[in-house]
Amino acid sequence: MKKRYFVTAIGTDSGKTFFSAILTEALQADYWKPIQSGSPTDSSQIIKLLSNPKSKVFKEAYQLHQPLSPHAAAALEGKKIDLAQIEMPFFQDTIVIEGAGGILVPLNDTHFVIDLAIKFEADIILVANLYLGSINHTLLSAAELKRRGLSVKGIVFNGERNAESERIILHHTGYSKLLHLEPEKEVNKAVVKRYAALLKEKLMP
To answer: Which of 2, 33, 185, 200 is flagged as catalytic?
Structure first.
């Protein structure tokens, strides 16, 4: 059975693309970011970080120029994002779908980023970067995912370790911790491969 993962986060610049590269590499999956705001594109970054020859990186459904919320970036270009018109590309075994910003970033006046995960029936992985205030932001994100009854595969922490923040987040969410991304001087193929090996142990029986 084909597998779909949707990588989302508690906010912008939380480490979604870094983790998406790791997940794609670990599973030798295909990668797709349906909606891109700003440049360089996350797809171009993913291509630079993958080592395996199997993964394919698909073209965005919407590639917007301004690094803004998708609904605002689209409006500046005289466009409106239509969720019904976004179609899943054909993929072989597993696909990693990367969201834009946090789960309630608006796509238009009706839909949010998380609606992409619902449309494509994907298991969600939540990336939470650790900073002062991130407990609140993470628990609010988790509460919304639970309110919508969505399947969450687990959570990934990113940044300087904070054992108490991680503990209380896992306690209240009940999520499984899949990985902790340490601050890295450089993110490159070797770093991605190292984390991919760790993640594979968590995801594969």
So the answer is: 33
* Cβ-based neighbours of 90, under 8 Å, separated by 6 or more: none
Structure tokens at 58: 């698909």
Contacts of 87 (CB under 8 A, 6+ apart): 61
Q: Which residues pair with 6 in a beta bridge?
A: 97, 124
Tokens of residue 168, six digits? 């209380």
pLDDT, one tens digit per residue, over 48-87 is 999 999 999 999 999 999 999 999 999 999 999 999 999 9
16 is catalytic: no
User: pLDDT, tens digit, for every residue of 94-129?
Assistant: 999 999 999 999 999 999 999 999 999 999 999 999
Q: Are 99 and 16 in contact (CB under 8 A)?
A: yes
CATH architecture label of 3-203? 3-Layer(aba) Sandwich (3.40)
Write 172-175 long-range contacts (CB < 8 A, 24+). 172/139, 172/142, 173/138, 173/139, 173/142, 175/126, 175/142
Give yes or no for a contact between 33 and 45, defined as CB atoms under 8 angstroms apart.
no
> Domain segments of the chain: what residues?
3-203
Helical spans, DSSP H, in the chain: 16-27, 42-49, 70-76, 114-119, 134-147, 163-173, 189-203
CB 97 within 8 A of CB 24: no
